[in-house]
């Protein structure tokens, strides 16, 4: 086998690996998109329940106002999830991280810490 043949073979293998990775990524994105509407409906249902029960919470109007505000945020989140596909959400995340690198890094570190705690406590 010559060096040129070996280079051609490795280039073909690399191309196949890239194609397989791309196909796998697309399949994952399609699966996420297929479950998006159900997730949005669940979030909106939680918002509706919170709105309905907010005035009955102990703590008076201040607590009720906070609960209604949280319900409004949940409702907006449900609308966002319903309207945006996975690719659009990924683009939004990239933009937020690019515009706010320090908070994004702190958030990622906190998430990593929490995940490590969750999985290490299962031993």
Can you tag this structure with a few keywords?
single chain, mainly alpha, 123 residues, 0% strand
Structure report:
The structure is a single chain. The chain starts with a helix and ends with a helix. With 123 residues, it is mostly helical. It is built from 4 helices and no strands. It is elongated and about 80 Å long. The chain has a domain at 87-123.
Helix and strand layout, with pairings?
Blueprint: H1 3-54, H2 60-83, H3 86-99, H4 101-120
Helix pairs in contact: 1-2, 3-4
Instruction: Give the end-to-end Cα distance, rounded to a whole number of Å.
Output: 50 Å
Structural Rg: 23 Å
Structural class, please? Answer: mainly alpha
Which overall shape is indicated by the principal axes computed on the Cα atoms?
A: elongated
**Helix-strand pattern:** HHHH
Q: How many E strands? A: 0
Distinct helical segment count? 4
Task: Offer a quick outline of the entry.
89% of the residues lie in helices and 0% in strands.
């Amino acid at each position: 086998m010559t060096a040129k043949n070996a280079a051609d073979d490795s280039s073909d293998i690399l191309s196949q690996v890239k194609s397989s990775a791309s196909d796998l990524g697309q399949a994952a994105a399609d699966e996420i998109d297929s479950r998006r509407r159900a997730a949005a409906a669940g979030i909106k249902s939680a918002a509706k329940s919170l709105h309905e029960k907010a005035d009955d919470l102990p703590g008076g109007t201040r607590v009720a106002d906070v609960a209604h505000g949280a319900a409004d945020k949940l409702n907006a989140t449900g609308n966002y999830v319903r309207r945006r596909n996975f690719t659009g959400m990924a683009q939004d995340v990239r933009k937020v991280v690019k515009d706010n690198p320090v908070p994004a890094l702190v958030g990622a570190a906190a998430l990593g810490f929490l995940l490590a705690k969750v999985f290490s406590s299962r031993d």
